[in-house]
Amino acid sequence: MIRPVPLILLLLLTGCTKSFELPETQPDNTVLVVEGNIQTGVSGENTFTLSRVKALFAFDDIPEENALVEIKQENGPRWKLPHQGRGIYKSRLQLPTDKPLALQITTADGKIYETPYQQAIKTPEIDSITFKQEQSGDVKLFVHSHDDQNKTKNYKWTFTETWERRAWFQGLYEFKNGNIVPRAPDDQIYTCWNTAEAPSFIIGNTNDLSVDVISYQPLGTIIRPSEKLFIRYSILVKQIGLSQEAYNYWEILKKNTELTGTLFDPQPSKMPTNITCTNDKSKEAIGYISVGNVTEKRIFIMNSEVNLWPSRNESAACDAFEFGKFQAERFLSQNPIYLPAYFITAGGGFGVALRQCVDCRLTGGVNIKPDFW
Amino acid sequence: MKKIIPILLLSLPFSSLFGQQKSPFDSLAQVLEKRFDVHFYYDARQTNGLDIIPAAGKLEEILSKTLEGSGLGFHIDTKSSVFIFRGSPLFTPLSPNFFSKTPATDNKGIEVVQQKDVTTSEDTENKIYIIGTKGGSGNSAVISGYVRDARNGEPISAASVTIEGTAAGVSTDAFGFFSITSPKGRHLMKVSSIGMKESTRQLNVQGNGKLDLEMNEEIRSLKTALIVANKQSNVRGMQMGVERLSIRSIKQIPAVLGETDILRSLQTLPGVTSVGEGTAGYNVRGGGADQNLLLLNDMTIYNPTHLFGFFSAVDPEVVRGLELYKSAIPERLGGRISSIMDVSTKDGNAKKITATAGIGPLTSKFTVEGPVGSEKTTFLAGGRTTYSNWFLKYLPDATFSRSSVNFSDLMLHMAHEFSDKDKIWLSGYISSDLFRLNQDSTYSYANKNFRIKWKHNFTSKFYQVFSAGMDNYDYNVKGRNNPKDAFNLNFGMQQWSAKTDFKYAPNNKQEINFGAQHILYNLNPGSQLPADTASLVSSKILQPEKATESTIYLGDQYRLNNKISLQVGIRYTFYRTFGPRTSYTYKTGLPRNTANIKGTESFESGETIQTYHGPEYRISARYLLNTRTSFKLSYNTLRQYIHMITNTTALSPTDIWKLSDQFIKPQFGQQLSLGFYTQPGDKGDEFSVEAYYKTSNNYLDYKSGAQLVLNGNIEQDVLNTRGKAYGIEILYKKPMGKLNGWLSYTFLRSFLQVDDPIAGEVINKGNFYPANFDKPHIGSLVANYKFTQRFSISLTSTYSTGRPITYPIGVFNMGGAQRVYYSERNAFRIPNFFRTDLSMILENNHKLTQKLHGSWTFGIYNVTGRDNPYSVYFVTDSRQIRGYQLSIFASAIPFVTFNLKFR
Fold it and tell me: What is the mean pLDDT of residues A53-60?
C-alpha cells in the first residue's frame, strides 16, 4: 500500500507512448499453468483450472485435459477432483481446516506436479463494503476487514458484480404464430440481471500497520453514468488470506503485467511458484496454490442512493412504429427483427420496435432473477 | 581599473632583470676590457642573468668562474677578442656533464654572437630566468612552480611542461603544479596547453628553484574547441582510460532544453553509456551505475541529479572540468569498482570580480567570483534554481497540473594562499529537490557537503594535501493519500572523511605518491513513521549502520628509460562495520530466509560485526614507440564496500544504499586493459584504441518479489552476481582547427551471472546473461564548426544498439485476465537508438574592455525527431496483452538560452 518509488510518468512535454510490435517469439507450451485454491471449511468449492502457456496473440487456449487432480492430507486421505472439461477440475469438498494439505497433479503424459503441504489460513470475515460518490459523480467501492489476532496480514480479493437493467420498452406482449398475444409473467424480457467477474484481482497487506486492519481498500470505480447503477447494483466480494510467499506471487503477477510503463519500472521478476514437477526437473509450472477458507460479503446499491444518476440511457432511446393490430402482425411477420413493444391504450393498436429495444437479454444479461436479489 | 600586469615570482631577487639597465655582466665586461685590453663579444640576452662574483686573477680564471654553470663558454683569440657563447668548450675543460646534453637552443655548432648591445624586450619570454643558486652539488636541478591562466589566476591542469632538447617532460597536476628535473645550464622551457598560447622561458638553471608561469589565452583559439587540455598527454602520459572534458567543450555539446549538463556530456565519450535518456545513472565500461564515484572537489555526491535524473545537479558555471577514470585509476582514489569521476570547480578569479547569469526555459543561474581583499583570497559562488512549475500546468494529465517541482543547488568555494608553501580551500555544496505529486505525496531529497583542503609544500619536490569533510544525502517521502495510511519515510546517509596525500618527485624519472584516508559511514537505512495520530501506520525504524573504511596507499611512477615507464601502486583498505546492531544468524549452507534463522546475535555499540580488508593493485606500463606513438598496459583491482539497493532498470532518487556487513560482501573488481595511442599529423589530432577485460564479484541482484525499502533483513532477499565485461574503444580526436571534435566507436559487452545455489534462486538457469547496460555497438560524433569568431555550430550524433530487455514470449490466463510469460532475463533488445542534436552559439563582440558580454544558444535536441524507445512494456488491457513503447524525448525539441557575463 505504501509505495516509496514514484510511479509517475515524468515525461515532461514530449514523452510519449505508442503501441509496439512484439517480435515473433517461440511459445514455451511445456509450461503448466494451474489456477485455484485449496478451499477449506464447510462445503468449500474447490476448482482448479489447468492449461498450458500459449504463444502471444494465439487465439485458442490450451486447456490441460485428462489430468488426475487430487488434494491430499498429510498422512491422510486424498480427494480426487473430477475433470469437467475445458481444463476445469472441480468438486465441492469438506476439507479439514487443521490438517496440512497439498495438491498433486498427474498430467496425461505422466508428469507429476506437487505443492508442499500447507496449513490452512483462517481468513477473517469482511467487515463491510462501502461506497462513496466522488465529486466527479463516480462511485468508488471499498472493502474493510480486520483480524483480531493480527495474523492474516496479506489479503486478496475478487469480486462479482450483478446489476439490474431494463429494456427500453416493457414488452408485455409477444408475437407468437402470427398473432400478438400477452406474454406469460414468468417469461418476462423487460428486466435482466447482468453479471461480470472482476477484470483482475486485488491484493493488499497490513505489514506496515500496527494493527491488522484493512480500511478503505479500493475495489473499483463505477463511472457515471454506467448502466450498473440505473436501477440496482450488487457486488459480492470474496476475501482470502494469503501467506507472504503467496502474496509475493500475486503481487509479481500484477506488477509484471499491470503496473508497467514508468521510468522507474522494476525488472520483470521471475514468478515464484510452489508447484514443482517431481519427476522431471526441466518442467516448469506457473501458479501458487494457497490453502485456506474464503469469506465473502455482498452489498446492494439502489439508484436512489447515489446523486444525479440517470435511470436509463436517453441517448440510446428507441423508436417505435405504431400500427393497428392487423398491420402490426403483418409487419412483424415480414420483419422478424422487430417485436411488439407496447399496447396503444388510446386506439387499441400496437407499437413495434427493434428486438433489442424490447428484449433485455439481447443487450446482455439473463431474465432470471438471481436467488440473492 | 587597469589590469595588474602579472609579475612572475622568482626565487632570487634579480630585479635588474626587469629593466633595461646594464646587466652586471656588462659592467664586468667593461672593467675587464679596460684591465686586460681586450674586446668582448657577447649576446646580452645570454649574459644578463649572470651572477657576478668577486674574482681576481687572470682573465681566463675570472671568466671561467663567472661563467661556471651557466652553460656559456668563452674563447680568447689571438687578436684579444673575447667571445662569450653557448656551446661545447674549446679550451677550458669544464665538467663534461654540462654539455653532454644537446644544446638548449638550436645553435648549430659554435655560433658567436657579434652584436654587442642587444636590448631584451619587456616580454617575459625573451628574458633569462635564473633558477636556484650556484654551487649546489649534482648536475641537475628541480624546477617547480604553478601554471596559471593570466586572465583570472585559475590553475591550468594537465599542461605539459618540457625542457627542450632533453627528455624531461611532465604535466601539471590539478593545482597547476609541476616539478621537473632539468640539467643545469641554459635551457628553453616550453609550456603548452590547448587553447592557450604556448609559452617559453629561457632558463639558466643553477640549482633547485621555483618558477611560476602565467599563460595567455590564444585569442584565435575561439576557432578551436577545447577537448583535452593536453596535446601530449595521451601519447606520452602514463594514464590510460582517462577522459578529460573542460567546461568549454561541455558547453559546446547541445543539451536537452538548453541546460548544459556535465553528466550527459559524458555520454558522448567512449565507454560511457546509460540505460536510457533522462536517467540519472551512467555505466562505465559495462559496470553498474552504483559502481561509479562522483567527486566534486573531493566531496562525494551520492545523487548528482535533479528532477529524478533529468538534470545533473552540478551547475556547469562553477565547473572547471572533469576527469573520468575508466581503467587505470590512480592509487590515491578508490571506493568504487567501475569508475571515478573527479569534477573540479574553478578557484575564483584572482584578478577582479566577475559574474555570469544564464536564463533558460527551466532554470536560471548566477555565479559570482573574484578576489577578497587581495589576490591571495578568492571566492566563487554559484547557484541555480528552477521555475519549471509552469510547464506542469500545460500537461494534459490532471495529475501533473496539480503537481509541483522545485529544485536548486548552490556551490560555494573559497581559496586562500597563506604563502608560497601553504594554501587552503573551503568548499560547500547543497542541492535539494522537492516534487509534490497530485498534492498528496511529496518526494524530497538533498545533498549537503563541505570540505576543507590544505596544501603544504615541504620542498619543491615534495608536497602534501590534507582534506577533511562531510558528505550527506537523504530523502524523504510524505504520503498523504489516505488519512489512515499517512506516513513519513526517511532515508539518510552521512560520511565523514579525512585524507592526506603526499607527492614526492625526486627527479624526472620518479614520482612517488603515498597517503592515507579514513571514512566513517553513518547510515540510516530507513524509517517510517505515522504522519499524525489518525494514521494507523506503524513506526518502523531500521537499525542504523555504521562502518569505517581506512586506507593507505603507495605508488611509484618510474621512468626506466626514454621508452618505458612503469607505475606500480598498491592500496590497502581495511573495512570494519560495528554495532550497535542485532541481527539474525542463519544455518550454514542453506538459503538465508525466515525458515533457516538459527537465532539472533547482538553487538554492542562499537563492537566489531565484521571486517574486510585487502590490497588493491594499480599497475600500468607505457612503451613509447616513438615520440608520436605509444602502447600502454594496465591492471587494476578495486574494492567497494557500499552498495546501492535498487531493482529498477534506471536509478531512482529513492534508491537506498547499504554497507557491507557479515552477509553482504564487498564488491571486488579487476580490469586488464591495453591501449594504443598515436598522433597523426601535426595539428594535435589523436587516435587511440583501448581494449579491456573486466570482472566483478558480489554485485547485488534481488530475489523475485524482494521488498527493498524498509527491509531490515535485506540479506534474505539479495543474490550475489558475478559480472564480466569486455570491449574496445576507438577514438579519433581533432582538437584544433575550424572544424574540431571527435568520432568514436565502442564495442562493449557486459554479462552477469547469478548461480549461487545457496541463494535459493538462480537467473537464466545460472548462465551468463547480458546486463541492462550491454550495448555492443555505439558510435558517437561530436563536431563543432566555427564560422566566425562569434558564430559556431555544434552537432552531436549517437547511435547505439538497443539495450537488452525481457520480453513476454507467451500468455496464460490467471486472476481473471491474460498474463504474460516472460522470456529469460534480457533475452531480447529494444530497437536501436539514434539521435542527433544541433546547436548554434552566437556571441556578441569580443572586446576585452566591454563590461557586459552576452551570448545566445539556439538549438534543437533530437533533430530527426526519432522516437527512440526508452523502454518497452506490456499491459493487460481489457483482458488482452498489449505492447507499448515509452519514449522520453520523442520529437525534435527546440531550445534557446541566454547567457550574460559581467567583467
Answer: 79
Q: Are β-strands B199-205 and B718-734 bridged in parallel, bridged antiparallel, or unpaired?
A: unpaired
Grid cell, residue B636, equals: 587494476
Confidence of residue B9 (pLDDT cuts 50, 70, 90): very low
DSSP H/E element including B47:
helix B44-47
Phi, psi of A257 (to 5 degrees): -125, -15
| Percentage of residues in chain B having pLDDT higher than 70 | 85
pLDDT in tens, B37-56: 888 888 777 777 677 766 66
Give the separation between CA B722 and CA B603, rounded to whole angstroms.
31
Round to whole Å and give the CA distance between B554 and B552. 7
- 0.80 exceeded by the pTM? no
pLDDT digits (tens, 9 = 90+) for B457-468: 898 889 999 999
B250 and B316 Cβ atoms separated by less than 8 Å? yes
Give the pLDDT confidence of B701-757 residue by residue, as tens digits. Answer: 887 767 788 888 888 888 889 999 999 999 998 887 888 888 999 999 999 998 876
Test B536 with A264 for CB contact under 8 angstroms: no
Best CA proximity match to B145, nearest among B15, B11, B7: B11
Residues of A in contact with B813 (CB under 8 A): 33, 35, 49, 51, 61
Of B625 and B222, more confident: B625
Are residues B901 and B367 in contact, defined by beta-carbon separation less than 8 angstroms?
A: no
Residue B17: pLDDT band with limits 50, 70, 90: very low
DSSP B767-785: --EE-TT--SEEEEEEEEE
Question: CA separation (Å) from A286 to A115, A255, B16, B407, B817?
Answer: 12, 15, 92, 46, 15
CA distance B822 to B804: 13
How far separated are the first and last CA of chain A, in Å rounded? Answer: 34
Distance of CA B252 to the CA centre of its chain: 18
A63 closest CA partner among A90, A33, A103: A33
Q: Please name the helix (run of DSSP H) or strand (run of DSSP E) that holds residue B29, with its range, or none.
A: helix B24-36
Q: Do B876 and A270 touch (CB under 8 A)?
A: no
Q: How far is B572 from chain A (nearest CA, A)?
A: 36
- CA nearest neighbour of B567 among B496, B621, B493, B629: B621
Positive or negative torsion for Cα B245, B247, B252, B257: positive
A22·B825 Cβ contact <8 A:
no
Q: Cα separation of A64 and B513, whole Å? A: 71
Radius of gyration of chain B measured on its C-alpha atoms: 31
Query: Do the Cβ atoms of B159 and B230 come closer than 8 Å?
Result: yes
Contacts of A18 in chain B (CB under 8 A): 867, 884-885, 887
How far does CA B572 lie from the centroid of its chain?
A: 23
Contact A10 B814 (CB under 8 A): no
